[in-house]
Design a protein that fits this description.
This protein is mainly α and about 70 residues long. The chain is built from 2 helices and no strands.
């Protein structure tokens, strides 16, 4: 029987397991990363980041900024 009261969250795949993880970071990722870095008072060089690297850095900065 399925517990209808259980909170379900979407399954998250580790960025290193993404099929497209080694592709260059997207424009929206770079933009969001720059915004988060500014809010955290950090400097982030987005040149040459992969999608997976950008995702991990976004997660780090989200924790730092409480977003």
């Amino acid at each position: 029987m399925v517990d209808k009261n259980a909170v379900s969250s979407p399954a998250e795949k580790d960025p290193s397991d993404w099929v497209t993880g080694e592709e260059p970071a997207t424009g929206p990722q770079e933009s969001y990363l720059s915004t988060l870095a500014q809010q955290a008072g950090a400097e982030v060089d987005t040149d040459g980041l992969t999608k997976a690297e950008a995702s991990r850095k976004i997660d780090e900065l989200k924790q730092e900024t409480g977003r």
